UniProtKB/TrEMBL annotation:
Transmembrane segments: none annotated. InterPro entries: AB_hydrolase_fold (IPR029058), AB_hydrolase_sf (IPR050266), Esterase_lipase (IPR012354), Hydrolase_4 (IPR022742). This is Alpha/beta fold hydrolase. Residues 16-228 form the Serine aminopeptidase S33 domain. Keywords: Hydrolase. One of its GO terms (molecular function) is monoacylglycerol lipase activity.
Length: 248
């Protein structure tokens, strides 16, 4: 089976711009429905695809997390070059912590951080994501071998040496959260791992924004934009953006 690789997408509508950021081992499909929802309400949206994501896992493990971050900066600059001087950002999982990092380094109208990792931990769970991604990719592409592609075998063949650097980016971003004064809305799913729920509390308590809030979704897991309460998530993000004072 031939897999059609996901691509970056842009939907140009109104004068309000939102940068949408996907997660680690995810792709722009993580935020495509959210993008359509916002564009239907007169927001211009752009979602970059991180280098190495959305295709063969061999391409992913050969990339560097700094290249993913550069994809975020390129997405931000794309909107700036389009003439938008007010840019909000919304990201899920790794996209959530990248959204906060962007708020630390670039002018942002507002930040929505969904299921963002913010606490220090080892890289074992990140490596497990690589394994899961590889197995899923092989099954979709028709190359999965029941004997050769057991998780323990995948773990030997698909090792990403830069995962510790990725955790370092997360830790560094968390250490600078107090520099953020942009409005921040933090979303979490209560069926997600406790690590992400605790991360939401850390983010809320650390940012210095006068406008900041946390919203929990009882029946949702990690990728809020794809889970069963996604329409509620979209509405929540839209109303948060609508409550801001934009230049018209």
């Amino acid at each position: 089976m031939k897999i059609i690789p996901p691509k970056p997408f842009t939907i140009e509508k109104g004068n309000r711009a939102v940068l949408l950021l996907h997660g680690f081992t995810g792709n722009t499909n993580d935020v495509k429905r959210l993008g359509r929802f916002l564009s239907e309400r007169n927001y211009t949206v752009h979602a970059p695809l991180y280098k190495g994501h959305g295709g063969d896992p061999k391409d992913l493990i050969e990339t560097d997390p700094i290249e993913w971050w550069n994809s975020v900066l390129e997405g931000y600059d794309y909107l700036r070059n389009k003439g938008f001087d007010e840019i909000a950002v919304a990201g899920v999982s790794l996209g959530g912590i990248f959204s906060l990092r962007l708020g630390e380094e670039r002018p942002t109208k507002a930040i929505v951080a969904m299921s963002a990792p913010a606490l220090a931990k080892n890289t074992d769970s990140l490596q497990e994501r690589i394994i899961d991604y590889t197995i899923k990719y092989k099954k979709l592409s028709g190359t999965f071998n029941e004997q050769e592609d057991q998780p323990q075998e995948i773990a030997k063949k698909y090792v990403m040496p830069k995962l510790s650097y990725l955790q370092g980016i997360i830790n560094d971003t968390s250490a600078k959260l107090q520099t953020i004064q942009t409005p921040v809305h933090i979303l979490r799913g209560l069926r997600d791992d406790e690590y992400y729920c605790e991360s939401a509390d850390l983010i809320y308590n650390s940012v210095k924004s006068r406008i900041k809030s946390v919203k929990s979704f009882i029946n949702s897991g990690h990728i809020l934009t794809l889970d069963q309460e996604k329409e509620l998530v979209f509405e929540e993000i839209y109303h948060f953006f609508e409550g801001l004072k934009w230049k018209e």
